[in-house]
C-alpha cells in the first residue's frame, strides 16, 4: 500500500474520531455564525439581542431539541469528514512526495539544502485543499442546513408572530382570532430534519448549483489548511532536527508533541481565516428567513456587504471563541491519531515483510 493511501486512510480515521468528540461544539458554532442580529437603526425587524455564550446555547439546544439537536447532521458530517480528509491527505501526500523529490534533486545539484521550503508546503496544501473542496462541498452544504434548520425555522416563526401582532395593532377586530393564531404558531416546534429533506430543500431553492453554495469563500479558505500545514510541517521539521541533534534525547516525536503542534498550527490558521468561514456558513444556511431581504444573500460579495451594513464588522467574528476551542482540539486529536495510525501501519508492514522473508527462507 502506498504511503499516500496510508496517510489518506489514517487521516480519515483520525478525522472521524475528532469529529464525533467535538461535533456538539461545531453545531453550536455554526448556529452562532449564522445568527443574524442587526445593529440598532438599520431597519431590520429582528431586535438586537444577546444569545448567550457557548455553554448557554448548548443547554438551550438540549432543553428545546434534546441531545439529538447537538448532533443534527452528524451522519453526512461523518461522511464528509471521511471523504474530505481521505481525499485531502491522499493528494497532500502525493504532491508532498513530488515536492520532496524535487527538493532532493535540487539539493543534489547544489541548489538548496534538499528539504522542502515553507512556500512549497503552502502550494502542496493549497492544491490538495482545492481538489478536496470541489469534490466535497455538496456534503458540507447539507451539513450546514441540518445544523441550522431548527434555528431558521424558529426565525420564521418569530417573523410570522411579529406580522400577526402588527396586523392586530392595525385591525382591532381580530380579538380571539389573534390568540388562536398565536397559540397555533407557538405549538409548532421545529425539529431537525434528515439528509434527503435537506437535499430536496437545497435543490428546490437553487437547483444543482445550490450544492456548491459558498464555494468561493471555501476555495479562498483553502489557505486555512495551507497555513495550518505550513506551520505544522515547519514546526515538526524543526523539532525533529533539534531532537536528532541532541544525541542523548529521543529522535522520534511523541504523540503529545504532535498533539501540541497540531493545536498551535490550527490556532494560527483559524484566527487568520475565520471571517471567510462565517461568510461560507451564511451562504450555505437556509436563506428564506422571515422574508427579510437583509437576511438573504445572492452571493459572496452580497453577503459581505450586507453583514457590514446591517450587523457591522463584529459579525465576521461571531462564535470565534467556540470555533477556536472546537477546531484546535479536533485538529490536535486528528494529527495525533493520524500519526499513530501511520506508525502502527509501518510496524505491521515491517513485521509482515519480515514474516514473508522468513517464510521464503
Automatic annotation (TrEMBL):
Signal peptide span: none
Taking the record's annotation, the residue ranges forming a coiled coil are none
Major localization class: membrane
Q: Which Gene3D superfamilies match?
A: Mitochondrial carrier domain
A single Gene Ontology CC annotation of this entry is: membrane
InterPro entries membership? MCP_dom_sf (IPR023395), MCP_transmembrane (IPR018108), SLC25A32-like (IPR044712)
Sequence intervals crossing the membrane: 77-95, 116-135, 211-232, 253-277
Please indicate if the UniProt record lists Transmembrane helix as a keyword.
yes
Quote any Pfam family the record assigns: Mito_carr
Q: Where are the Solcar repeats?
A: 2-98, 116-238, 253-344
Q: Which UniProt keywords apply?
A: Membrane, Repeat, Transmembrane, Transmembrane helix, Transport
How the protein sits in the membrane?
Multi-pass membrane protein
> What's a BP term from Gene Ontology annotated to this protein?
nucleotide transport
Chloroplast: present as a keyword of the record? no
Where does the UniProt annotation locate this protein? Answer: Membrane
* SUPFAM superfamilies found in the cross-reference section: Mitochondrial carrier
**What family is it from?**
Belongs to the mitochondrial carrier (TC 2.A.29) family.
Name used for this protein in its record = Peroxisomal nicotinamide adenine dinucleotide carrier
Supply the source organism for this entry. Nyssa sinensis
